[in-house]
Specification:
With 172 residues, the protein is an alpha+beta fold. It has one domain: 2-Layer Sandwich (Alpha-Beta Plaits). 34% of the residues lie in helices and 20% in strands. It contains 4 helices and 5 strands, in the order E-H-E-E-H-H-E-E-H. Strands 2-3-1-4-5 form a 5-stranded antiparallel sheet. A hairpin with a 6-residue loop joins strand 2 and strand 3. Helix 1 packs across helix 2. The protein starts with 25 loop residues before the first strand and ends in a 6-residue tail after the last helix.
């Protein structure tokens, strides 16, 4: 895995890339797993708001189970899918490996989960997954809230979060 060539990621607000994290923030090299529903708007139209909500709750539940096993951090889910971070808030030397294994297991569990398929017309859920590695700035408390999955208030300085939702073709 390659380290970014510039010592600090650049952004539109900091085109020279010379900023440093604030006192409550730090740079972390992470791997991000994005999993989005293929054609979420059409799926929402088919299922309706309540059906889409139940489907997403099942997907989030399965994701939390997988992430707990691989020590991933679930970011707040959206109406199109989930994002998980490996290597933050707690550093993990093998975060790329953990992310790949989690993606493979999540893909299999989404494919095989009977209750999930019972919610879908046709019984098949098409998802898009992407793995991305790079630096992010992790801020906030960095402490997990009470509950089964860890979360961290983070802001990314490396563009990665939504590209799986735009990638061509489903992965299941």
């Amino acid at each position: 895995m390659r380290e970014p060539s510039h010592p600090h990621p650049t952004s539109a607000a900091d085109p020279a890339g010379v900023s440093t994290p604030r006192a409550h923030e730090e740079y972390k090299f992470v791997t991000v797993l994005c999993c989005g529903l293929a054609d979420a708007p059409a799926l929402a139209a088919q299922l309706g708001p309540e059906g889409l909500y139940r489907l997403l709750q099942t997907v989030v539940g399965l994701t939390q189970e997988v992430l707990q096993h691989y020590d991933g951090t679930l970011m707040p889910p959206t109406s199109e899918g989930v994002t998980a971070v490996f290597g933050a808030p707690v550093a993990q030397e093998d975060h790329p490996r953990r992310a790949v294994l989690a993606a493979l297991e999540l893909r299999q569990r989404l494919r095989d989960h009977p209750a999930l398929h019972a919610q879908l017309p046709g019984g098949v859920l098409a998802v898009r997954m992407g793995l991305h590695a790079g630096r992010i700035v992790v801020g906030g408390s960095g402490r997990p809230p009470s509950g089964s999955s860890r979360r961290s208030e983070s802001r990314s300085t490396w563009p990665c979060a939504s590209s799986s939702r735009r990638s061509p073709g489903p992965s299941s």
